[in-house]
Amino acid sequence: MDSRDFSIHSDIKNVKIYDDFWNSITELVRKEVIPYQYLALSDKIDGAEKSYCIENFKKAALLKNDKAREKYPVDKWEYTDDNCPKESFHGWVFQDSDAYKWIEAVGYSLINHPDDELKRKAKEYIDIICDAQLDNGYLDTLYIINDNDKAFTNLRDHHELYCFGHLVEGAISFFRATGDRKLLDTACRFADLICDTFGENKIKGYPGHEIAELALFKLYKATGRKEYLKAAEFFINERGKRPYYFDIERNSHSIGENYHYNQAHREPRYQTDAVGHAVRGVYLYSAMADISKETNDDELNSACHSIWDNITEKKLYITGGIGSTVDGEAFSYDYDLPNDLAYCESCASIGLIFFAQRMSEAEINSQYGDVIERALYNTVLSGMAEDGKAFFYVNPLEVLPEASHRDSRKRHIKPVRQKWFSCACCPPNLARLLSSLNEYIYTENDNTIFVNQYLGSRLESKHCQLNLKSQYLENGNISIKIDNCNRPFNLALRIPQWCDNFSISKEYQIKNGYAFIQINVDCDISIDFEIKPRLVKCSNRVRSNVDRAAVMRGPMVYCLEEKDNGSDLQMLVIDKNTDFKTVGEYILAKGKRELPDSNLYSNYMESEYNNCTLKFIPYYRWGNRGENEMSVYVRI
Amino acid sequence: MDSRDFSIHSDIKNVKIYDDFWNSITELVRKEVIPYQYLALSDKIDGAEKSYCIENFKKAALLKNDKAREKYPVDKWEYTDDNCPKESFHGWVFQDSDAYKWIEAVGYSLINHPDDELKRKAKEYIDIICDAQLDNGYLDTLYIINDNDKAFTNLRDHHELYCFGHLVEGAISFFRATGDRKLLDTACRFADLICDTFGENKIKGYPGHEIAELALFKLYKATGRKEYLKAAEFFINERGKRPYYFDIERNSHSIGENYHYNQAHREPRYQTDAVGHAVRGVYLYSAMADISKETNDDELNSACHSIWDNITEKKLYITGGIGSTVDGEAFSYDYDLPNDLAYCESCASIGLIFFAQRMSEAEINSQYGDVIERALYNTVLSGMAEDGKAFFYVNPLEVLPEASHRDSRKRHIKPVRQKWFSCACCPPNLARLLSSLNEYIYTENDNTIFVNQYLGSRLESKHCQLNLKSQYLENGNISIKIDNCNRPFNLALRIPQWCDNFSISKEYQIKNGYAFIQINVDCDISIDFEIKPRLVKCSNRVRSNVDRAAVMRGPMVYCLEEKDNGSDLQMLVIDKNTDFKTVGEYILAKGKRELPDSNLYSNYMESEYNNCTLKFIPYYRWGNRGENEMSVYVRI
Q: Coil, strand or helix: which one is A508?
């Protein structure tokens, strides 16, 4: 068996989730996040910062045909009442994308939960959006309102192509859910303009913030139009060529400038390491994986593997977080994974899931599902408060509230989740990811159904109907029922990397981390993954974690909080031979607390300790009880 | 005995140093640093960045009486050929101070080593400086050249009063060394203008960067003129009053502004913690100690003690470094002493020595000498390369060169010393401190000679002539010979805080950390401080140092360097029961090296180790062999 199999795919419409754990979270998204955001986009929430998002679209629709209209500067990142006139565009340069991401989340949600009222609201916004589009297909309200002559003149810093990417993703999601083509047609018209504008003998530029690449690929798959694939390829192949387009567009020579931030330091096909802004990075790598698979581009495929290995072997937090420095929200150097300075943007882990999913569709290897699981159960879940009303952008592994308040180097580390509306990039990204989990459970090809994630669910496949009941988090028990089996096929079950012992009620063969079972007739299969708390060591190449360990149980990383363990978590030590006891959501372990030293410096003596019980809570649950210290790693 | 004794003082002119270790360093300053800096101030070094310092004075002298001269802006921190015309002031706003610090170092050096050529060079610069002074006494070349109407209008950000402070210190040093009054008279004229300008019913401002306070006090002691003491008191008492002067001078309300950076957040007499820019802080605290002693100001004295305790109990690195964050070059919150992000500016430790010296002159307590020793033998010495030609501004406790090059959060951490001329604040500060060590060895009052530092030296006192021979660093042996004893007195020997065992050949009584010996006649005293390598623990309230220890020997902190121990110093572990072996400058200890982990994350297992010998080098010697990893703390 060749592990590369370019016919693997997933289809969100064929899967329904029936899972107590996950449904409680996706219901929070459906009932709290999506409705709240609908109001926020129209500035209908008292006391919240204004979004201006829908207002910009309305403004653009009114102004777009007025040839005599005034022009305003397009030179800022954020346009506020303080720095521009009322008539100007308002908000961040990427404000349009919030509406698109919201529509994308709505689309996924409608597939799972038909809801006429929500559909009506989405169509209301779609009408407003489409009204703003120019006759030539252009659609970015900043430039339409402020100065359309300057469209596409600042690809490096502005986000027209980024907003376009989200428009496409929103349009496809809504079309798939409802069959309504209106937004999709609008997206295609903009895509056509982009194809006419960029390319050989045209503008040889590429997006400063990637996503158009993967969106164009998605649009190609949705419409079959090859020009979109070509445009995506062009953007990827042009990036990083000398002279740099970003220099050409400002008539400058690249003196001291480096384009690692935009992954534009060299051509993507020759890149080997994950560098620069982490979200931009994983969006680019996702598109590279798409295209290398579609076009059998071995160089691009090899770059994807090299970058993947660099991330997962040297730049990945135990929580699935990536991007360890706040400066540029970026990947740092190898093994630089500080706990208390981590950035680990929620969006970056979401993008890592996109990248992993695409890798898993090109190659049979359980590591991709493992990484998706690590990111999903930890950093992604951690991003949202238990009431669905507050969010983390940054997901640190160690928090001291005093440091966040008083140390400018840690100002990005928030000790409690923030209301989502202050700068709305991660919350809607969480909404769209959590509403589309159906996509990540199964993939299939002509002869195999792959079970990648163990969410209770039903798959309607060409091979059979598959019902999966999951007690994955409770006790590791999975039962699968195959009905309507209409032809023999393989069922491939991902064996989670964390699981040392498992049993499967049918004969199986392990290949590339999956247990392959031949299915010929309807049957029941039960799987038992031994799930128990365990101590995990981080490589001693990571300086901050020597002499420390983390507690995990299944895919879940746990952490210590001050509320449960008192302050000065650095004085706690876990017994390396501890038994673990699971009590509700907690894990209890044997440990000791070092008595506080009375002098700042003293001759070394063995420390004194009091025995104590350490109380661990799942990482994704931290910070729901007010500000307090938190630490994933504990001394051992 | 009351430990407070307001008659203790030191006198640099009565002490000569004869000490192999220290003379080799001060000779480096005399033969390398001072001559090099003489050339640098006049821009006579090929290939070096221009200083413009002497050029500014010359420019000011030519222009000062030209009423029709053009004006230039005074709104920048640094004036370069790129941002201002040729005729404007050039360099940093505090450029004048470099000349003054150089003259101060020359003065101290002349006291130790008469040198006619050096004296001639200093007088040459003094003539140039004095020519630039305005008739009213004003002397700051930025404002004289660019726009004198704006003098004293930006006390918060500009450095007129800072340059004035260094002018005074330089003038007093040179006057003491040579009896030449010219610069001292110039300083007094500027001081008189300042007394006329600031005060009740005058401008109620105070310096943004403190030092004028301690300089005015010094000038009061040198001249006996009470108005200088009053001006120093005024500056201290006015600081931090509401409304903030810094707001008044910009017609602004302090919205979101905080003046911790300038220690102006509240009146100094009510301050309890060390905050803000560390150098500014210790200069202010030094002046507070001076004035509280002179005026018996109990509130100010109590503030000094509270701030002192806060520094030494919660904000002091084992190396005597202070100021743990690069942001604002500032003190951080209690126990925030990161090794790899430390700022620990050389100047800040020099200022800490100033503060400690003043505290020791007001109160008999060996802790002040202990802190001077800690700072001097570690951070201060570390500031200069072994060839005297390169300097550290920042003195970290852990260095990974890759991090300095690739991680913007650690860009201030230089893995090797820099040529001193790029921004010349620490090198001349080192020069003046190292040239004036005579001041720190002895203090005396009517009945006691205190030996605070054990540098081989001769003291000419009113009590006797005291010869001290020192093998302090070699084996802890000190021999003291008292000659010409003309009246009974106490000899008080500081017992170093690091020393657990010592013997003294005469009867003594311990009080406040000093061994007091009654001396009636000429005699010899021998002292034996047991000096041996030891393991030191940092309080477990400091998060970065749990499960770690440092190696010290006497006052010296040691460290591991990659050149001696290989890379990945975090994999090294010292045996807590190790014997130590001293070989040349090295200390060898028993340890082990953890084998590198092959996976980023794995189930916890006991690590495997290879035994090895750890090779420690004195901290002040690190970084003299090219870029490499360094760490003070090691796992235990």
A: coil
